[in-house]
Fold this protein.
Amino acid sequence: MNAPLINWYKFSSPATFYPLAAKLIPWFTAATILLAAVGLWISFFVAPTDAQQGEGYRIIFVHVAASWMSMFIYCVMAFWSAMCLSFNARLSGMMASALAPTGAMFAFLSLLTGSLWGKPMWGAWWVWDARLTSQLILFFLYLGFIALQSAIDDPRRADKAGAILSLVGVINVPIIYFSVQWWNTLHQGASVSMTKSPSMAQTMLWGMLIMALAFWAYSITMALLRVRCIILEREMTNEWVKKNALE
Amino acid sequence: MHWNSLNDFFAMGGYGLYVWGSFGACALGMLIEPLLLRARRRAIVARVPAKELME
């Protein structure tokens, strides 16, 4: 008796993925709320006062989480764009479109929280620093992706055009990440990296990681919610939508 | 727990504007987005009967 073959492509079509997303959303919503509660508790009541920045450093808990997510979401968007172009998969294109608005929001929040942190600590809302400038470019790439897709009527062509733009723009993510090492930037270097042990207090580090996980669960929840909307909008005329999708 | 009072907590060591501005903006964004998505879904679901009538 041969081993049971796993159908890896079972959830790769809109019709099969739609109900799966519905099952996943409550779990990721619960994870988001739980992680955010723990993260906020650590941010304000567990993490100690910083020696130099006093209480102002607490912005790190949202600034780093938003910044990491803005870069990570862009990479996931580029991945789905590659799938869309190479396999001509409808759902992949939908996933890329579903991720863009959340990524754009986090890129904006990263710039905003960074600016709110920079004013008291650096004395400036904005400087043309390598890290800040490349993050601004990331924000414009997100807006460009969304604008390009909304400018094209046929969804399939919009997917392809958006996919090309996002793949071209993906080179910007490592630039952002390494900008603090390549150029002499005002923005400090990575306190957390895979190579060396983190140069941060334990509770501050855990607060930051848990908030990042909360933002990650949040992004998944939003992507699943939005991809269900996109599937409905595009597959409205299909029989399966009328039959069971609009419960 | 090193906040002596609620005012102390809101003052946030003098950085209240910046810290609460940051957390507030994130909270705002992460509350509005789900609401917009819910509205978008309702609009789609509302449109279906009209489409079926057309067929």
